[in-house]
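#struct-help
A.M.: can someone run this one for me? Single chain, 431 residues.
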Amino acid sequence: MNRYQFVLRPGWSAALLLGCTGLLLPVHAQTPFPAKQRVAAPEVRIEGARAAPAQVNSPRAERDRATAPQASRPSATPASAARPESAGQRFAAKEQIATDAQIERARHAAAQSQRVSVVVARAPTQPLPATALAAPAAPAAASERASPMQAERLGLRVADDPLELDSGVALLVDANTGEILLGKNDTVVLPIASITKLMTAIIVVDARQDLNEVLTISQADVDRLRGSGSRLPVGAELTRGQALHLALMSSENRAAHALARHFPGGVQQFVRQMNRKAVELGMHDTHFADPTGLSGGNRSSARDLAMLTAASSHRTLVRELSVSPQYQLALGPRTITYRNSNMLVRNGDWEINLQKTGFIREAGRTLVMQADVSGRSLILVLLGASGSQARATDAERLRRWVLRSLFSSGPLPADAVSASERERSGLRQPS
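D.P.: on it. Structure tokens below:
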């Protein structure tokens, strides 16, 4: 007879079975994204003002589900059952570029970084304290300047994807249906830099403030967080409409800050309105800390930024000013010429209806656009690119991927093939 015998009482058996089941749950939780995903429900288009938060697998939503009592957790419903396949879809509904393990590691790292920041971890429906909206102290400013790009620190830029994108985060969405066509780390929350100015513009436009009112640049508008320069000297006078134009087109920080400073209640009230608007749009992974994007506390996910891009494109003034190639501002005896910060605006291959670029050290190069590609309205989001040229190259690769998908059953149009591919094709032709 075996010397070691184990007798399990009925109560212990149930406990052991429950414990083994719990060990298996994390494995099943890492299943790939469903085939069909949307940034917003089809009936509300991509604006997503009433999109259900459960449709976005955000770090915050996952933490809430993990900490909620068992009885209060909603029953799991497959996303594919809630959203039937659309007939005649010519795109791959979702191309999983990064592996699930890489995305899970990035989510975990992002969640850990959020827990140390009270501002980021706070639920967006709760009122924000005044201290969360105040300018950071000097030690925090020095820390932000020394921070590396977060997309690189989280390992997002080393994902092996077939498009070889430099950006750590990428998202391509059908602007009419809200369907995600391509995503790479699109739920990770990162600093967004001057993409922030799109929300700044929305607040100004929706408040219907007088665009002809003259604003004066003051010392309060000078960047003391990063020490960035500006072509608008202290004492310069320009209208609110001109300040809005410069903030959107050339990402002028002093102009954006002056817009918030001349808002009823000042900068703090303006930032509160930005966060309230984010909640209204369904941007549950987003927090704004200042109106310019200079603060690393301006954070969002690519899916939230797709909603912001769509909402901005429905404001005619915001849309038109953002794609202006250049603007001349008369300041006393001299005239300053500003050019668009997005080099793709001057590229004849693109039909861009709205755009915004951004850069701070933590965010890397960022970009959102709403553009028409072969008659199809698309929203593009790129975060964590290493440089301006790399960011533009990523956008071009995504555009060619779209064109290849559209014309997969026939000859490719000329703009779907890169110059290097045309050169290689020419070398293969018989002489």
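A.M.: thanks! The two ends are 87 Å apart (CA to CA).
D.P.: also worth noting: DSSP finds 16 helices and twelve strands in the chain.
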